[in-house]
Design goal:
244 residues, alpha+beta, Beta-Lactamase, Arc Repressor Mutant, subunit A, 11 helices, globular
């Protein structure tokens, strides 16, 4: 018989036991980073990432199990497509056991790029409670094949715990974290929104076109959107109408 309380307790224990790195983010962000690392070890998986989104398809990565996972998460925002975006939009898990066979028709930009990074299967689980949505948790594997029933249960459990941290800023395994809500976490990505507004004004284009310009530049320069956005906001980069 399934024991939800036992699964949550065990997942929290794995997160608590995950080592804290010297440069770990504080508070809830740091716990989400350990959540990603703990899940990556527990499945096992090549990597785990957690990204937030909004209804206008904006957002970004806030926690990963390692640098490779961050690159994979950012690819989705560079291409404007991918498993976490679909999981958020559909409110359903996106389970792609063979990335090239089933992901290429769905994500013609993201799938080959992720494949070049060694991904052969990807699974995305929406972060949601009731009508509230926040983003998705992604699991990457370096060989094709579905997740087992136990692995799926673990992933769903960790996704629920991630949503708890985002909404409450705390969970049952620790006494307290700094108060944190979704607006606080989205502020972690404020440069992207600022850059989008600046490009919109500079070029006299729509907000969607401004994001497309930023994505195009990031793709052409092989950089993360978040890094390009910081350079736009600081004035180190200024896009013009001829920028790819």
């Amino acid at each position: 018989m399934d024991d939800p309380q036992g699964r949550f307790a065990r997942a929290n224990q794995l997160i608590d036991e995950e080592p804290r790195s010297a440069d770990a983010a504080p508070g809830a962000i740091g716990r989400l980073e350990r959540l990603c690392s703990a899940l990556s070890r527990a499945l096992p998986a090549t990597g785990v990432g957690l990204s937030l989104l909004t209804d206008v398809n904006q957002g970004g990565t806030i926690a990963v199990s390692g640098p490779a996972s961050r690159a994979l998460e950012e690819l989705q925002f560079t291409h404007g497509e991918g498993p976490c975006i679909d999981a958020y939009a559909s409110r359903r898990p996106v389970l792609v056991a063979d990335l090239l066979a089933h992901g290429l028709p769905r994500w013609p930009g993201y799938a080959p790029a992720a494949h070049e990074h060694g991904v052969r299967a990807v699974f995305a689980f929406p972060l949601q409670v009731g009508a509230a949505r926040a983003g998705a948790l992604d699991v990457y594997r370096d060989e094709p094949g579905p997740l087992s029933e136990e692995a799926l249960n673990q992933a769903f459990t960790f996704a629920d715990l991630a949503m708890d941290v985002l909404v409450d800023g705390q969970n049952g395994s620790e006494q307290s974290h700094p108060a944190m809500d979704l607006d606080d976490v989205l502020a972690y990505r404020v440069e992207v929104y600022q850059a989008q507004g600046m490009v919109m004004v500079d070029l006299g284009v729509s907000i969607d076109e401004a994001m497309a310009r930023i994505r195009g530049y990031a793709y052409a320069q092989d950089r993360y959107i978040s890094d390009v956005a910081k350079d736009i906001v600081s004035g180190r980069i200024r896009l013009d109408r001829d920028t790819p």
